[in-house]
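Sequence, please.
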């Protein structure tokens, strides 16, 4: 059972939330993500993709703050989704030292840069905004462990697709996990860029 092998603080939080049994998606995907492999994770709405993203991010970061540079990046479609994900993260990080942070187009880029440089662990952002931060050297990726994309179906938009390719060219090495409702030809193209040797898990 994947939950049995998670960090003690995660298991404690799951117990408080009365979440005892992993979903079929979590049972399949959590061990693969823990192994460090790049992964495409496709499943319908309600299968537990976002919760899987949160649990595996906390596991990778061992539920504690370290250094100043982000060790996890979460890419989302828009500001609303970013704030929604932040709220879900806060349920799990409230009694840890982890520092999640949201950055989006409506915030002044210089403010984002200065706040990120003060020290964060988890950066949640949109492709366009994150690419802008990268181009302005506003994010250091030397400590990056995991880069996840939530509900990646939005990457069908050419601007988001191109921004992600630009971002990943600046990352020397980390694990990538893409969550989507279905595997598309456009997502499969990432195999040629940053998703090499990736595994695919799908629930229909």
């Amino acid at each position: 059972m994947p939950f049995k092998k998670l960090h003690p603080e995660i298991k404690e939080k799951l117990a408080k939330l009365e979440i005892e049994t992993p979903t079929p998606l979590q049972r399949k995907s959590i061990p693969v993500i823990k192994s460090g492999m790049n992964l495409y994770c496709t499943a319908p709405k309600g299968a537990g993709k976002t919760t899987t993203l949160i649990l595996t991010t906390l596991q990778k970061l061992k539920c504690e703050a370290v250094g100043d540079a982000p060790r996890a990046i979460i890419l989302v479609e828009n500001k609303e989704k970013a704030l929604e994900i932040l709220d879900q993260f806060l349920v799990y990080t409230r009694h840890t030292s982890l520092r999640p942070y949201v950055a989006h187009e409506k915030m002044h880029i210089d403010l984002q840069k200065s706040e990120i440089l003060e020290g964060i662990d988890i950066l949640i952002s949109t492709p366009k905004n994150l690419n802008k931060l990268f181009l302005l050297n506003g994010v250091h990726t030397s400590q990056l462990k995991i880069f996840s994309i939530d509900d990646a179906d939005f990457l069908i938009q050419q601007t988001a697709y191109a921004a992600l390719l630009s971002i990943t060219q600046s990352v020397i090495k980390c694990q990538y996990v893409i969550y989507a409702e279905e595997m598309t030809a456009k997502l499969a193209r990432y195999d040629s860029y940053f998703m090499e040797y990736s595994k695919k898990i799908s629930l229909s």
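The chain has a mean pLDDT of 94.
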